[in-house]
Design brief:
Structural class: alpha/beta
Strand order of the largest sheet: 2-1-3-4-5-6
Organism: viral metagenome
CATH topology of the largest domain: Rossmann fold
CATH superfamily of the largest domain: Glycogen Phosphorylase B
Shape: elongated
CATH class of the largest domain: Alpha Beta
GO molecular function: transferase activity
Largest sheet: 6 strands, parallel
CATH architecture of the largest domain: 3-Layer(aba) Sandwich
Keywords: Transferase
Domain Spore protein YkvP/CgeB glycosyl transferase-like: 193-306
Number of domains: 2
Distance between the termini: 12 Å
Number of strands: 11
Protein name: Putative glycosyltransferase
Order of helices and strands: EHEHHEHEHEEEHEHEHEHEHHH
Strand content: 15-25%
Length: 309
């Protein structure tokens, strides 16, 4: 099956930040699933940067020439670097359109999603299931997780006891991480593409080499959010220490496949406990890795999308 991805090339459509995470979340996993010959990318931000004009005409020409079986769209909220409604309608008249939503806990995303539903066959949401009661056609929505490149995340040598890899300028993260760095010997914090840039490979390698990975689920919306770190950590064989939330608890069994925490003291004490009880830590990490590897790998993700389409 030939898939044309209509997505931004750069993270937040900002050339200075670098290539979007979709490169390994979606493009690489699709190539692994369907073959490189069945992948093409058209990026409206890159086209405008190169040619100084919108890419609608060129995008439609590519659809006509390459004749994809479907389009995978990533609509960028609040940007003019998206296909116009006329372009989207013309594509939809020929082939199915799949849209992915990364932050559907925000009302603005739900509203925009509803606005373009005339030209979308399937919506894939990867961060929350709470939106179902807010949309007009819930049968057109599929709640999944963030797919991960199998070549990046796998169990490695766990020479780092505990760490957090990601941005801290969000909710109460910074206070918690600074506290852990002060009270947990050897606790590591790195990454956050807008704070302390990590290469893709460096970021993944950190997970492969870390025994316990902290994760947050709180968001500025006030609702818990499933994030890619959940699957990254479990595929890499880490003990996932995740802020308590219903989404992760619906995918993994708390206490047996990952460990929940509710506040700073709870998290700190659990890191100390599992540092001292390594066999127990490894048993939970191995169970989480086994579930992620079997049920939440990228081939299962794409199989599920294709069946729903």
């Amino acid at each position: 099956m030939k898939m044309l991805f209509i997505e931004s090339l750069w993270l937040d459509q900002n050339k200075e930040v670098g290539v979007t995470n979709s490169e390994h979340y979606l493009w690489n996993t699709w190539k692994q699933y369907a073959g490189e010959e069945n992948f093409k990318l058209f990026s409206f931000d890159e086209y405008l940067d190169k040619h100084g004009e919108p890419g609608d005409k060129a995008c439609l020409e590519l659809v006509e020439e390459w004749k994809p079986d479907a389009v995978f769209l990533d609509w960028h909220i609040g940007s003019d670097k998206n296909p116009t409604p006329d372009t989207l309608r013309e594509i939809h008249n020929k082939i199915p359109v799949i849209e992915i939503w990364w932050d559907h806990l925000w009302n603005a995303h739900i509203i925009v999603g509803e606005m373009i539903q005339y030209w979308v066959n399937l919506n894939v949401v990867v961060d929350t299931s709470a939106f179902f009661k807010q949309v007009n056609e819930p049968d057109k929505y599929l709640f999944l997780w963030t797919p991960q490149d199998k070549n990046l995340y796998y169990p490695g040598d766990k020479y780092i006891d505990a760490g957090f890899y990601g941005r801290v300028k969000k909710c109460d993260r910074e206070k918690i991480i600074e506290g852990l760095k002060a009270e947990i010997p050897g606790f590591v914090h790195a990454g956050g593409r807008k704070e302390h840039p990590f290469s893709r490979d460096e970021y993944a390698k950190a997970y492969c080499n870390t025994a316990m990975v902290v994760n947050f689920s709180s968001s500025k919306s006030g609702m818990p959010q499933l994030v890619g770190r959940t699957i990254e950590a479990t595929l890499a064989g880490c003990l996932l220490l995740e802020e308590k939330n219903p989404e992760t608890a619906g995918m993994f069994e708390p206490g047996k496949e990952y460990v929940e925490w509710e506040n700073y003291e709870d998290l700190k004490n659990k890191i100390k406990y599992y540092t001292e009880h390594r066999d127990e830590r490894k048993a939970i990490a191995d169970a989480g890795c086994a579930r992620a590897t079997k049920y939440y790998n990228s081939n299962v993700w794409w199989d599920t999308v294709m069946r729903a389409l």
